[in-house]
Amino acid sequence: MEEKLLEYINKAIKNDNKAFDNLIKYYENDFYRIAYINLKNHEDVLDALQNTYVQIFKSLRKLKDKSKYKSWAIKILINECNKIHKHKKVEFENIENLSDKDLNDIYYSDKTNNIADQISIKMNLKALNKEDRTMIVLKYTRGIKIKEIAEIMNIPENTIKTRLKRAKEKLKERLN
Amino acid sequence: MNDEFDNKIQEEIQNIFISESDSETVRNNVRKRIKKRKKISVICRAVIPTFIVSSICLAVSMNIFNFKSVKISDTIIEQAAGNGYIQNLNLDYVKGENIEVAISKILLDDNNLDFVLNYKTNKNIANFDRMMIRDLRVYDENNNILVDEQNMNALCSASGYTKSIEVSNNNYECTFFANSLMFPKAKTINIEFSNIMFTNNSQNIEFDGNWKYEITIDDKMVNRASIEYSFNDEKPNKDYKIESVRLTNTGLVLNISGNSTVLDIIKPVFEIDNVKYEYNNNIFDTIKDNKVIRTYIYNVSKNNAEKEIKLNISYKKENKTIVLNK
Prior knowledge:
The complex is a heterodimer of chains A (about 180) and B (about 325). Chain A has about 180 residues and is an all-alpha fold. Helices cover about 75% and strands about 0% of the residues of chain A. Chain A is built from ten helices and no strands. Chain A has helices at about 5-15, 15-25, 30-40, 40-60, 70-85, 100-110, 115-125, 130-140, 145-155, 155-175. The longest helix of chain A has 19 residues, at about 70-85. The radius of gyration of chain A is 17 Å and the shape is globular. Chain B has helices at about 5-15, 20-40, 75-85, 220, 260-265; strands at about 65-70, 85-90, 95, 100-110, 110-120, 130-135, 135-140, 145-150, 160, 165-170, 170-180, 190-200, 205-215, 225-230, 230, 240-250, 250-260, 265-270, 275, 280-290, 290-300, 310-315, 320-325. In chain B, strands 1, 2, 3, 4, 5, 9, 10 and 11 form an eight-stranded mixed beta sheet that branches. In chain B, strands 6, 7, 8, 12 and 13 form a five-stranded antiparallel beta sheet that branches. The relative contact order of chain B is 0.15. The interface of A and B includes residues 14 and 58 of A.
């Protein structure tokens, strides 16, 4: 585990506000991606993130194995996304319904020149069912192994592998 | 082995990232919620003198040192100073062991008691940004106990300190703040303590002494008046009740009763002339008649409040607007 991360965790447990701030920033993009792929709108994503960090603050002392911080925190995040899900229905999005923010995110990328591809992947990712979406975003989040995905989602490792393969095939089909 | 499609998905997902402004919004809101949790965990059921209200309740005070990591300018004192509702004091420094302490400003209104502590010491306390007084006692000429963590009858519902900051060489300052459902219109305030502690994440340093201050409160605070608004809640909700809305010298004060879980979800916002006002960091709970009353304070001045005031409350899926009348 990275030294800095461990330092932030240890200090945050002692109510060091700055350390807790740094802890939030440490994986904020990864967490944002997971919430973003999981939830329909921007406000829900920010709500899920805030709720997650408050929960992390409340429970950080109880985390026995600090090296498991990332997967532990992601589990909390997914629970928070699920709570928001219970009240909302995520529907397949047409490109006309993408918000300005979504479109800005797409155009922000300078790595893929094919805008149509970008729009399709994101849109079709969101069109998969909740579990498949979550699995895919976790798989492509740096530092998360299949074993950890299995722990986070409480699904056996082999099942994760099979479902991931199927989810990718579905995505490919949609794009074609 | 990653194929091309894998790389595409990887790229697409890695290109999703949180904007700086969203990141700041999230962290600010988390900080506020965490502070709120710390402050709300102080619960004091206050004995309220019968000349103020007719019901009586018991007081239990718990000690919590709530450290506001904000500048003094964010406290009620700075806002009140802008309105002229502050009393500058000319008290001498009182010596203790290796430290001298004076009080330079005080504010007392219905819901707030704030005073600014100034202290001088040759000991190196620059790295200790948190100050607390372990046995602080504040009472008035009628022996109403405003602050005393050992006393069940203390009126204070919540209290804390701002960060201790160095204002010049070896001279430091911080503000003590206390909240109550109703502080009395005291003419004299006595402040006494014998132990001060400074702390940071890893160390403490303590000073002993015998500090006593007697402060004659300005007439404007003794004779303060607040405006109570009437309102008609046409769609009352069984989970909570709007108890009162008052305009005081330090802001617009809203009291809502309910259980803590419900109160944590409610979002009350005032709207005046199309401008929305959210509550500031001064939120505290009091238990009265076996119910929790949450007090919210909004930075609304008497000038702002000349126009029509609406209270917007969102709770679960309900959003309602109530117009207030003077």
